[in-house]
Design brief:
By secondary structure, the chain is mostly helical. It has a single domain (5-495), classed as MFS general substrate transporter like domains (Growth Hormone, Chain: A). The chain has helices spanning 5-14, 18-43, 45-48, 58-74, 76-89, 92-112, 116-119, 122-150, 158-185, 189-196, 198-216, 222-229, 237-243, 245-280, 285-313, 315-341, 383-387, 390-410, 413-420, 426-442, 445-456, 464-480, 491-495; strands at 345-352, 359-367, 370-373. Strands 1-2-3 form a 3-stranded antiparallel beta sheet. Strand 1 (345-352) and strand 2 (359-367) form a beta hairpin.
Length: 508
């Protein structure tokens, strides 16, 4: 085994220049496509839900569809464990090649899936199976992409380079909204509802094909190649990551001191903001999609900015600032959103479905002392008219502020997670806290928020959950999270010996 540090440095520089950007492109494009596939399902909820469930109760159909959507979040940690183990045993590249194929194939199937009117109860069952496959695939994709990039780039620029992976989740949501809006504008509302909704799903075939071609041409990460050839890979990465207290402790601190807060901030600033506009404030759905899409586009460069800044001042400080700002700002921001939209919603009427027990809400306004359903605001006529409306730009600014919070917590977190764990269990160990934090704490936020709003009638009560979780993360992270900026993962190759556990001896 070669242990000379100059060889390790040469390995890092070998991926330098244009090769680093090839690595980032191969990882980021595929990951963005997987997020696009994952979120297109939720973005089309109101259009698709009546097609795959029995006719006669659109509210029940939407609830069932959203429950199917939520399943994809719940199974993500299981995908993280399954594909993380493969990534630590076989290789990073092969694990996320498989996840890409599963995600792309499952998404394309939705585009061809017959509706309830054609195949009856089989339609929602197949849809549920597809959603499970999507969640499992995404559970393995992120960890592979983050580790693959991090194990190619220099230690001193890891925050900067991995931030391009962090862009992919928001970019995937943005692209899903952009494709939907483009397809909708190209046909009538009736045509889109009848068959046009299939186009965004079918497009996955082309997108996945391009990404697969790029990924097949890439080599395994040099750090994994080294530890595998030296016999230093873990024979039981799951057991080593989660039954040894030293590693399990880092997993738990990473979950409650980083990824749980990051997850709720991410989903509040993007998904819940869209849900709040459309469902609570009764902003026209198309107008809301444009507003959120523009805010997302404006926020994209800040992922890179804060990722690069974390290379200079540390990951922990930036993430904790993001959690704190979010926790103290959400309620004032959402009150300002209501004022900007001109919405006169004062409370909600909750209705419990007798079959499922689920809560649906109807925004209410007060007219002459009596409550009645709120009317739609910011009705969409055309893009130019919307962009000339000062209310739209006020909402864009308020959502952009929330996206800035997202970039603070999300931009540096890939670098932190990679640096927190040794190479032999890195894929497995970082994937689980990431996907519990995002898939469970973050992914269930819209459903939890809706339930709390329905129970209380308070249109701001759905924010209590992300405020509490972000606050807990700020406290736990500030006290227990280790700063990892100075961890040298390339040094690990030099200090490890074949057949012995890899230890991190980098300066703190």
């Amino acid at each position: 085994m070669t242990t000379n540090a100059s060889v390790d440095a040469a390995s890092a520089s070998e991926a330098g220049g244009y090769k680093i950007w090839q690595v980032i492109a191969a990882s980021a494009v595929g990951t963005m496509i997987e997020w696009y596939d994952f979120y297109i399902f939720g973005s089309l909820a109101t259009i698709i839900s009546p097609l795959f469930y029995p006719q006669g109760n659109e509210t029940l159909a939407l609830i069932a569809y959203l429950s199917t959507f939520a399943v994809g979040f719940v199974v993500r940690p299981f995908g993280a464990l399954f594909f993380g183990r493969i990534g630590d045993l076989v290789g990073r590249k092969y694990a996320f090649l498989v996840t890409l194929l599963i995600m792309g194939g499952a998404t394309a199937l939705i585009g061809f899936l017959p509706t309830y009117a054609t195949i009856g109860i089989a339609a929602p069952i197949i849809l549920l199976v597809i959603r499970i496959l999507q969640g499992l695939a995404l559970g393995g994709e992120y960890g592979g992409a983050a580790v693959y990039v991090a194990e190619h780039v220099p230690d001193e620029k890891r925050g900067f380079y991995t931030s391009f992976i962090q862009i992919t989740a928001t970019l995937g949501l943005f692209v899903s909204l952009a494709v939907i809006l483009a397809v909708q504008s190209a046909m009538s509302k009736e045509a889109f509802s009848a068959w046009g909704w299939r186009i965004p799903f079918i497009l996955s075939i082309f997108l996945v094909g391009v990404s697969l071609y790029i990924r097949l041409r890439m080599k395994e990460s040099p750090i994994f190649q080294h530890i595998k050839s030296a016999g230093m890979t873990s024979a039981r990465p799951l057991k080593e990551a989660f039954t040894k207290w030293a590693n399990l402790k880092i997993v738990l601190i990473s979950l409650f001191g980083a990824t749980a807060g990051q997850g709720v901030v991410w989903y509040t600033g993007q998904f819940y903001a869209l849900f709040y506009l459309q469902t609570i404030l009764k902003v026209n759905a198309t107008s809301a999609n444009y507003i959120v899409a523009i805010a997302l586009l404006m926020g994209l460069p800040f992922f890179v900015l804060f990722g690069a800044l974390s290379d200079r001042i540390g990951r922990k400080k930036i993430m904790m600032v993001g959690c704190l700002l979010a926790a103290v700002s959400y309620i004032p921001i959402y009150k300002a959103m209501q004022a900007a939209a001109g919405s006169n919603v004062v409370t909600t009427l909750s209705q419990r479905n007798p079959l499922t027990g689920a809560i649906s809400v109807t925004p209410q306004t007060r007219v002459n002392g009596a409550l009645q359903p709120a009317a739609e605001v910011l009705t969409y006529t055309d893009f130019g008219s919307l962009m000339s409306n000062p209310a739209a730009w006020k909402l864009i600014l308020l959502i952009f502020i929330q996206v800035l919070f997202v970039t603070l917590v999300y931009g540096p977190i890939a670098a932190y997670l990679v640096e927190a764990f040794p190479a032999r269990i890195r894929y497995t160990a970082l994937s689980l806290p990431y996907h519990i934090g995002n898939g469970v704490f973050g992914g269930l936020l819209p459903l939890i928020g809706l339930w709390v709003v329905g129970q209380t009638g308070n249109i701001y009560a759905g924010l209590y959950y992300p405020i509490i979780v972000a606050g807990i993360t700020f406290i736990v992270g500030s006290l227990l999270l280790r700063e990892t900026r100075n961890v040298l993962i390339w040094k690990e190759m030099e200090t490890a010996s074949p057949g012995q556990p890899t230890t991190d001896t980098a300066p703190r």
